[in-house]
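User: Reviewer 2 asked us to show a designed sequence for the structure in our supplementary figure. I'm pasting the structure tokens here. Could you produce the per-position amino acids so we can include them in the response letter?
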């Protein structure tokens, strides 16, 4: 009999039946639990609270996604600007004897960043030439190149219940000197 109901042993079936008969909402003939309206207002307030909470969570997740997307885009611009500057300075195309020119690379880098991001959107914290064997964050340089650290403004604006906020993210990148063969 118990196997047909899905119970394999007597203990689990006894727990089910005792729980059902002790906490039975239909106990007696008057159905007390169904007629009791004391929690009706609390249920409506809880429902409104859940809708409000889901709306706030969706707003926060949307803002976080926007900041994440904007920071990835600006990091891509940053890496492209530094790669462009490292290639633009090496116009001879010679990789064997590279002359590192920090001033010219920085000028090209700033021009490219101003064009892509805007001059007021970033601030250069550190810019240097890197020779083979120099220490870099995450290892040592194997090739000559340029290392830059910037702080980028990703989001700024007035948030509800918080006020004016600006999110700035530090970024760093090492670009190896490369060349374009001019024929």
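Assistant: Here is a per-position design you can include in the supplement:
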């Amino acid at each position: 009999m118990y196997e047909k109901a899905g119970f394999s042993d007597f203990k689990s079936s006894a727990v089910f039946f005792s729980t059902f008969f002790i906490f039975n909402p239909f106990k007696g003939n008057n159905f007390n639990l169904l007629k009791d309206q004391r929690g009706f207002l609390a249920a409506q307030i809880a429902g409104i609270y859940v809708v409000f909470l889901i709306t706030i969570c969706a707003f926060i997740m949307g803002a976080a996604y926007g900041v994440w997307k904007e920071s990835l885009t600006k990091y891509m611009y940053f890496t492209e600007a530094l790669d462009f500057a490292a290639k633009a300075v090496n116009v001879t195309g010679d990789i064997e004897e590279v002359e590192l020119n920090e001033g010219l690379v920085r000028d090209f880098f700033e021009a490219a960043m101003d064009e892509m991001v805007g001059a007021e959107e970033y601030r250069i914290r550190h810019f240097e030439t890197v020779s083979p064997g120099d220490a870099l964050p995450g290892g040592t340089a194997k090739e000559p190149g340029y290392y830059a650290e910037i702080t980028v403004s990703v989001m700024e604006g007035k948030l509800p219940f918080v006020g004016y906020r600006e999110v700035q993210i530090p970024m760093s990148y090492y670009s190896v000197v490369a060349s374009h063969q001019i024929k």
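For the response letter, you might also mention the following. Residues 40-89 form the longest helix (50 residues). The helical segments are 10-22, 32-35, 40-89, 102-116.
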